[in-house]
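A common beginner's mistake is to predict each chain separately and then try to dock the pieces by hand. The better habit, illustrated here, is to supply every component at once so that their relative placement is modeled jointly.
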Amino acid sequence: MATGISRGVPLFSVSKGLALLGAALMVVNVYLIFMVAPTDAVLGDVQRVFYFHVPLAIMSFVAFAVVFVASIVYLTRRNAAWDRLAHAAGEVGLVFVSLALVTGIVWARPVWGVWWTWEPRLTTTLILWLIYAGYLIIRNYAPNRERGSVYAAVVGIIGFVDVPIVYYSVQWWRSIHPSAVIGPLAEPGSLEPVMQTILLFSFAVFFVLFLYLVVERAAVRRAEDEIRMLRLAALNAGP
Amino acid sequence: MNELPPSNLAFLFAAFALTWVIFFAYAFFLSRRREELQREIRELRETAEGSEGQGGDGNEGD
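With all components supplied together, the output reads:
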C-alpha cells in the first residue's frame, strides 16, 4: 500500500500548477485583448490576432534558444537530462512556431489579400519550421537512441542560426511584414502604451504555458526512458 | 469622411479558435501519454517485483 502511494502521481505537481496559472492568466489575457485593447485604426479588429501571433513567435525563439543551449551542454557532458530538455523544448517550440504560422496566415488573408506570400519573414519562418521538424524526425530515424540524441543536438545547434535570420529578415531584405515591436529592432513608441502593456502581459501568459508544456513533455520523455530501462532490466534478468 | 476599417471577425475568430484547438489537442495528447506511461511503469515494476519474489521462493525451495 505504501509503495503504491510513493510511486503514485502527486496530487499537485509543477505542471498542474503551471497549467492552472496559465489558464487563469489566459482568461485575463483574452479579456484584455477583446475588452481593453483599442481597435486598430487601420487594420480593424483583426489586428487583435497580433496579441497571440507575436508572443507565439517569440516563445518559439525562446524554445529554440533552450534547444541550442541544452544541446551544447548535452554534447559536452552527455547527461540525458539535457537531452530530455532539448527534446521537450524542440517539440514545444515546433508547436509554437506552427501556431505563429497559422495565426499569421489567417491574419494575412484580410490584410494582404493572400494567405501566403514568399516574402522574407514568412519564408525564413517556414525554413525554421522545417529545421525543427527535421530535428524531431532525426531522433526517430537514427540507428539508436543515443545517436539520435547526438544527431539532433547537432541539428539543434546549427539550426538555431535561422532564429536571428527570421528576426532580422524584415530589416535585411525588402519585406511587407510589419516591423518588429519587441527586441533590438523595435522602435520606441511604435505601439500605444496600452497595446504594449497588453502585449507584454500576453508574453507572460504564453511563457507560463510554454513552461507547462516543456515540463509535461520532459516528463513524458523521462517516463519513456524509464520504461526502456525497465524492459532492458527485465530482458537481462531472463525468464 | 472617417471610414471604419473592416472588422474581419471571421478571420479573428479563426485565428483564436485554431490556436486553442491546436494548443489543447497537444496538451491533451501529452497528458494522456503521460498517464499511459506512468501506468505502464507501475505494471512493469509490479511484474519485476512479482518475478523477483517468485524467483526468491524458488531458490529457497531448491
